[in-house]
């Protein structure tokens, strides 16, 4: 039996990048509704402060596209058989009246800004009184900014933990800090886009990454030539392919290939026995070769309990290669360093740094590689993100919109036309009960209007706001 191929649906149709039920909402707002206002906030969660990032990518990548009649027809052909009504006339108005440009206005805090929870981060309103339901239609897409914000926020908070340890134990903390948390997360995320956007969110705070997708996203959407850096590194296959009896030859090859003066190169050293590899292969057979190369060997444990393995590695390397005591009285390994890339999260980082301090070693001896915990072990509820309508214009009159469930007071939403301002030295959300305001003293900016991206920040500018 020959089957007729179904028509292919476009990957670039913005209209169908929403939740199904959104298509019925144009029939649900009160008659006479001409304006809606929605906002994004973090209602709490793991961290008390968020670092805003990623909206520019979403706007530039998606909402600068033009809606076409073909998109409208395609969306209707999918949504109506799916069981939902479809606002065909409204979408054709976007095409015919607005030239395909979305009649929306988006305001937001500058990317890279640190904002306490419970404050407005972004707002959206319509610029065509015939199409107020568009504000809700794009909630699905715009809400996804929770992901880069959450990754950026977690990364920033870990930066504070590492930075504090470096300040206490290192002579030049400012030079060390940007490369102390390296992104290993590309293979552990759900998509190429998640890899690029999540890894770039991390690079707002640090400069080390093995996620090439982040560099592409940074160049295309944030005017960054090379957003992050990596070093040559071994994996288990490149070591074990030599065979257990030739493990030392695999290590010798790494020194020969990459051990140049001033260089850094990482070698996973637990394929068989980490303690033996450090004490015998690195610490005896290859010790002088490592020293004479002029490069810095970075030994990587990759199994066992992370704090214990790092402690073992640092102590063993200190015994074999010696240490130098820095100006702050802490030991710095000679010729070698350690990178821990397995089981790394905020908790293990904190424990490892505490162990270094107890043992009298500087935090500069260890770098962290973070994968799934950095880019994948977060969700929308990590910081409890919400996108809610808070104001409307109905029959020409302003109306506050909010929810206040008695079963969960923490979900009460804000009402008003919202803005972020500085009052008494603190960021706070200000509510206007009218659409007729020019937002005096605002910390937010209009970044998008009627299909055009109005503000394009560089990664360098964004990093500077931390």
From TrEMBL:
Taxonomy, superkingdom: Bacteria
EC assignment: 2.4.2.12
A molecular function (GO) term: nicotinamide phosphoribosyltransferase activity
Binding site for beta-nicotinamide D-ribonucleotide: 210, 300-302, 341-342, 372, 380
Domain Nicotinamide phosphoribosyltransferase N-terminal: 13-106
BP term (GO), one: NAD+ biosynthetic process
Binding-site residues, diphosphate: 187, 236, 300
Group of enzyme by EC: transferase
Pathway in which this enzyme or protein is active: Cofactor biosynthesis; NAD(+) biosynthesis; nicotinamide D-ribonucleotide from 5-phospho-alpha-D-ribose 1-diphosphate and nicotinamide: step 1/1
Pfam family, one: NAPRTase
Keywords assigned: Glycosyltransferase, Pyridine nucleotide biosynthesis, Transferase
Residue stretches making up the Nicotinate/nicotinamide phosphoribosyltransferase domain: 179-451
Catalysed reaction equations from the record: beta-nicotinamide D-ribonucleotide + diphosphate = 5-phospho-alpha-D-ribose 1-diphosphate + nicotinamide + H(+)
Family membership noted in the UniProt record: Belongs to the NAPRTase family.
Stated name of the protein: Nicotinamide phosphoribosyltransferase
Organism from which the protein derives: Deinococcus marmoris
Upper taxonomic lineage: Bacteria, Thermotogati, Deinococcota, Deinococci, Deinococcales
């Amino acid at each position: 039996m020959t089957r007729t191929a179904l028509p292919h649906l476009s990957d670039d149709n913005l209209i169908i990048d929403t939740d199904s039920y959104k298509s019925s909402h144009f029939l649900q707002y009160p008659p006479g509704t001409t304006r809606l206002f929605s906002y994004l906030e973090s209602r709490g969660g793991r961290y008390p402060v968020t670092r805003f990032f990623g909206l520019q990518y979403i706007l530039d990548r998606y909402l600068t596209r033009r809606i076409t009649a073909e998109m409208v027809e395609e969306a209707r052909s999918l949504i109506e058989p799916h069981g939902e009504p479809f606002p065909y006339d409204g979408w054709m108005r976007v095409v015919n009246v607005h030239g395909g440009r979305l009649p929306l206005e988006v305001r937001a805090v500058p990317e890279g800004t640190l904002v306490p929870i419970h404050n407005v981060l972004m707002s959206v309103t319509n610029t065509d009184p015939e199409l107020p339901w568009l504000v809700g239609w794009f909630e699905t897409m715009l809400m996804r900014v929770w992901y880069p914000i959450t990754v950026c926020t977690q990364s920033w908070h870990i930066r504070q933990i590492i930075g504090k340890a470096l300040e206490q134990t290192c002579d030049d903390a400012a030079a060390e800090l940007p490369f102390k948390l390296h992104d290993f997360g590309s293979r552990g995320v759900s998509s190429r886009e998640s890899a690029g956007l999540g890894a770039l969110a991390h690079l707002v705070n640090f400069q080390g990454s093995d996620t090439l997708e982040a560099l592409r996203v940074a160049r295309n959407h944030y005017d960054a030539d090379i957003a992050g850096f990596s070093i040559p590194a071994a994996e288990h296959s490149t070591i074990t392919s030599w065979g257990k009896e030739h493990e030392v030859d695999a290590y010798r090859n790494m020194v020969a290939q990459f051990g140049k003066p001033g260089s850094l190169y990482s070698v996973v050293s637990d394929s068989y026995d980490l303690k033996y590899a450090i004490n015998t292969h690195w610490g005896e057979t290859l010790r002088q070769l490592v020293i004479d190369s002029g490069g810095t060997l970075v030994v990587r444990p990759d199994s066992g309990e992370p704090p214990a393995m790092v402690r073992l590695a640092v102590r063993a390397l200190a015994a074999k290669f010696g240490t130098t005591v820095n100006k702050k009285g802490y030991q710095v390994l000679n010729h070698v360093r350690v990178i821990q890339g397995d089981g790394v999260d905020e908790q293990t980082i904190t424990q490892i740094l505490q162990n270094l301090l107890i043992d009298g070693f500087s935090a500069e001896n260890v770098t962290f590689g973070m994968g799934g915990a950095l880019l994948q072990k977060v969700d929308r509820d990590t910081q409890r993100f919400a996108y809610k309508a808070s104001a409307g214009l109905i029959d020409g009159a302003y109306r506050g919109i909010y929810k206040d469930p008695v079963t969960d007071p923490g979900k009460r939403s804000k009402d008003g036309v919202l803005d972020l301002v500085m009052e008494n030295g603190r960021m706070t959300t200000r509510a206007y009960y009218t659409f007729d305001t020019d937002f005096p003293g605002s910390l937010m900016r209009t970044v998008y209007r009627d299909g055009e991206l109005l503000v394009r920040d560089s990664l360098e500018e964004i990093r500077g706001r931390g």
